[in-house]
C-alpha cells in the first residue's frame, strides 16, 4: 500500500469516529431535551410517587364503661412485627456473593438471632421454634407477633432492622368474662389485602352493633421514604389529615352488680343442674338494665375456638314459655276491669274444662274457697282461668299488647327476639286455656321482667334500655333518648296487684303460705310470682311431663319499688332442691341489692292475708 493510501484510510476512520461521536451527542441532547422539556413533569411525578407514600393514622377506639365510669372495654397501642423471608434470603445471598463481601451474616444466622432475641424479650408469648419456622418459610411476608408492647418492639427493631413494624391496637377487657355477652368483642381485622386498611373492629355484641361510633375515623399523612425502602424520612410528613377518635359508650350496667349476678347465676346453674340460667335486674322506674347475666359465658380476651352458643345473650335472644309468672296479666285485668277484689272469695274446683282440654291445678284438691289473692299466691291454674274468662279474650289480648309481648323491647342489644304470640284473630277455643297460665306463648326473660316493671312503676311500662349515654372525644356527653312509656293500667290497679303478690312470699298456717316463702327478705316487703312451664316436646308432639322452665319475677321493695328481678332456669333437675324454684336465687340477688344501694327498710312488714277460706 502506498503512503498516500494509508493516510487516506486514517482520515476516513477519524471522520467516522467523529460522526459517531457527534451522532451520539446529538441523540443524547435530543433525549435530554425530551426528558427535561417534554417529559419532565411526568417523570418528576413518577419519581415523586415512588418516593412518597400515604400512611394511615389510626383512630383510638372508644371505650365502653359502666354507669359509674368503670371501664369494661378499652384499647391499648401495640405493634405487629413481620418479616419477608423470600426477599431477605435473596438479599443476604447477593451480599455474600459480592467479591468484596466480608463477614456477611447468613440467612440462617440472622433468622436464628431474631428468633432467639424475640423469645428472650417477649418471654413465653412466643416459641423460638415456631418463630424459626415462620422466619425460614417460603412466604413472601409473615407476621411473627401481632401484639408486641411498643417499647419491646423498638428494642427488637434496633437489634434487627430487617423486621417490619406495623401500628396496631389491642382491645382489653379487664373484667374478663364480666358482661361479655353484652359487650361481645372486637379484634384486629386483616381481611383486606392492603395491610394499611387493617383496623380494630367489633365482631360481636355491642362492639359490633355500635362499631361505627366506637371505631372513629382514621386519618392519613403523606411521607417520603428512602429510595427502595419502607423507611420514612424524618420530617417529611405533609398533608396531614388528623384521625378522629371513637366515641365512648356508657352503659346502664353496674359492673359490681353484674359480677355478683353472674357468679350467682353460675352457682345456681350448678346447683339446679339446669341447661342454662339467665337473670335480669332492672330499675323499677326508668327501665334501665343494671345487670344481664347467664350462667355460662366466655372471656373476650381469648375468644378463639368458642362455642357459638356461649356468645349469645340468652336474656334477649332466647324466648321460653313463662308459665305462671304470666298470671300477672289476669291479675291486672281482673282488678282493672272490676271483675273482683283482693279479698273476694271464689269457689275453685280441682280442674276446669276449656274448649277441648282439661286444665288441672298443680296440686290435687276438691272444690276449695280461695281469695283472689290466694288464687295468685298459691298459683291456681283453675282460679286464674275462671278470672281470665271474666276479663274476656279481647281485653286480655289488649293487655298483652300494651305489655309489649310478641314485640322486641328495643333494649339496644343485637339478636333480640320478639318472642311468640298468636294474633288475636288466630286464637282457637283452647288458646284461652293456655295463655292466662303462661303456655302457648313465649317471651324473653327481659320481656318478663318488663311486665313486673309495669306494676312496680304504678302501671306505666318503660321499655328497657342498656345504653345510657355517648361521650364524644372532646368530652361532650350525649344522653341516649329515653324510650316512650306506655300506660298499661291505672296506678290503683298496679298498686293493688303489687300488694296481692306480696302473699306469694308469705309463710302462714292452715294452707295460707304462698308458693315462694324462700324469696322473702327480712325487713323488706317483697312482691313476686313463681312459674313452672312444661316444655313442648317436638318429637312427641305434646308438652313434656319431665322438662320444665322454672321462672321467678320479683320486686324489691314492694312498698317503694326500686328494682325488678327476673330469672329463668332451662330444664333444671327436679331431683335437686334447687331444681324446683328460683325463689332462693331471687332472695340472694334482692339481699345484695338492698345492701349495695342502701335501700331503706320497709316501713312495716307485709300483712299476712288469708288465701284459703273455710
From TrEMBL:
Residues 56-227 form the Penicillin-binding protein dimerisation domain. GO terms for biological process: cell division. SUPFAM superfamilies: beta-lactamase/transpeptidase-like (SSF56601), Penicillin binding protein dimerisation domain (SSF56519). The chain crosses the membrane at residues 12-33. Its main location: membrane. Residues 278-589 form the Penicillin-binding protein transpeptidase domain. Signal peptide: none annotated. It comes from the Bacteria. Pfam families: PBP_dimer, Transpeptidase. Keywords: Cell cycle, Cell division, Membrane, Transmembrane, Transmembrane helix. It is found in: Membrane. Belongs to the transpeptidase family. This is Cell division protein FtsI (Penicillin-binding protein 3).
Amino acid at each position: 500500500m502506498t503512503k498516500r493510501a494509508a493516510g487516506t484510510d486514517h482520515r476516513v476512520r477519524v471522520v467516522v469516529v467523529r460522526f459517531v461521536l457527534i451522532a451520539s451527542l446529538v441523540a443524547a441532547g435530543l433525549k435530554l431535551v425530551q426528558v427535561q422539556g417534554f417529559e419532565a413533569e411526568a417523570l418528576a411525578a413518577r419519581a415523586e410517587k415512588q418516593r412518597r407514600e400515604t400512611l394511615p393514622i389510626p383512630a383510638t377506639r372508644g371505650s365502653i364503661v359502666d354507669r359509674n365510669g368503670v371501664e369494661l372495654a378499652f384499647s391499648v397501642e401495640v405493634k405487629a412485627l413481620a418479616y419477608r423471608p423470600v426477599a431477605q434470603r435473596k438479599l443476604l445471598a447477593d451480599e455474600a456473593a459480592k467479591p468484596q463481601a466480608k463477614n456477611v451474616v447468613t440467612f440462617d444466622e440472622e433468622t436464628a438471632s431474631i428468633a432467639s432475641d424475640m423469645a428472650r424479650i417477649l418471654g413465653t408469648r412466643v416459641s423460638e421454634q415456631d418463630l424459626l419456622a415462620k422466619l425460614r418459610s417460603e412466604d413472601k411476608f409473615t407476621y411473627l407477633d401481632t401484639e408486641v408492647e411498643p417499647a419491646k418492639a423498638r428494642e427488637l427493631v434496633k437489634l434487627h432492622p430487617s423486621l417490619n413494624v406495623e401500628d396496631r391496637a389491642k382491645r382489653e377487657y379487664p373484667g374478663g368474662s364480666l358482661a361479655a355477652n353484652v359487650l361481645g368483642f372486637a379484634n384486629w381485622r386483616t381481611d383486606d389485602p392492603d395491610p394499611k386498611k387493617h383496623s380494630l373492629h367489633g365482631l360481636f355484641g355491642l362492639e359490633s352493633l355500635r362499631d361505627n361510633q366506637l371505631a372513629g375515623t382514621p386519618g392519613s399523612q403523606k411521607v417520603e421514604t428512602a429510595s427502595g425502602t419502607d423507611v420514612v424520612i424524618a420530617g417529611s410528613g405533609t398533608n396531614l389529615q388528623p384521625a378522629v377518635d371513637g366515641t365512648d359508650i356508657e352503659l346502664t350496667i353496674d359492673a359490681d352488680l353484674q359480677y355478683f349476678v353472674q357468679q350467682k347465676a353460675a352457682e345456681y346453674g350448678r346447683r339446679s343442674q339446669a341447661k342454662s340460667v339467665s337473670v335480669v335486674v332492672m330499675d323499677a322506674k326508668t327501665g334501665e338494665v343494671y345487670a344481664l347475666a347467664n350462667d355460662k359465658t366466655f372471656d373476650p380476651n381469648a375468644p378463639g375456638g368458642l362455642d357459638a352458643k356461649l356468645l349469645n345473650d340468652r336474656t334477649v335472644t332466647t324466648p321460653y314459655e313463662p308459665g305462671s309468672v304470666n298470671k300477672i296479666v289476669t291479675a291486672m285485668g281482673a282488678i282493672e276491669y272490676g271483675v273482683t277484689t283482693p279479698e273476694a272469695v271464689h269457689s275453685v274446683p280441682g280442674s276446669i274444662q276449656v274448649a277441648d282440654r282439661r286444665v288441672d291445678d298443680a296440686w290435687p284438691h276438691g272444690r276449695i274457697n280461695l281469695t283472689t289473692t290466694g288464687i295468685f299466691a298459691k298459683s291456681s291454674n283453675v282460679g286464674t282461668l275462671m278470672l281470665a274468662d271474666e276479663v274476656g279474650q279481647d281485653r286480655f289480648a289488649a293487655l298483652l299488647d300494651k305489655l309489649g309481648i310478641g314485640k322486641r323491647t328495643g333494649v339496644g342489644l343485637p339478636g333480640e327476639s320478639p318472642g311468640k304470640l298468636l294474633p288475636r284473630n288466630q286464637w282457637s277455643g283452647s288458646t284461652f286455656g293456655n295463655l292466662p297460665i303462661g303456655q302457648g306463648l313465649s317471651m324473653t326473660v327481659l320481656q318478663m321482667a318488663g311486665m313486673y316493671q309495669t306494676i312496680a312503676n304504678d302501671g306505666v311500662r318503660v321499655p328497657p334500655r342498656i345504653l345510657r349515654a355517648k361521650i364524644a372525644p372532646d368530652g361532650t356527653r350525649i344522653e341516649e333518648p329515653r324510650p316512650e312509656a306506655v300506660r298499661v293500667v291505672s296506678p290503683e290497679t298496679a298498686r293493688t296487684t303489687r300488694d296481692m303478690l306480696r302473699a306469694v312470699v308469705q309463710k302462714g298456717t292452715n294452707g295460707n303460705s304462698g308458693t315462694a316463702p324462700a324469696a322473702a327478705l327480712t325487713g323488706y316487703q317483697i312482691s313476686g310470682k313463681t312459674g313452672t312451664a312444661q316444655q313442648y316436646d317436638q318429637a312427641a308432639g305434646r308438652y313434656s311431663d319431665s322438662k320444665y322452665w322454672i321462672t321467678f319475677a320479683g320486686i324489691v321493695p314492694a312498698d317503694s319499688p326500686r328494682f325488678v328481678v327476673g330469672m329463668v332456669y332451662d330444664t333444671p333437675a327436679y331431683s335437686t332442691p334447687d331444681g324446683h324454684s328460683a325463689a332462693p336465687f331471687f332472695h340472694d340477688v334482692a339481699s345484695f341489692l338492698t345492701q349495695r344501694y342502701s335501700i331503706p327498710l320497709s316501713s312495716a312488714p307485709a300483712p299476712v292475708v288469708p288465701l284459703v277460706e273455710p
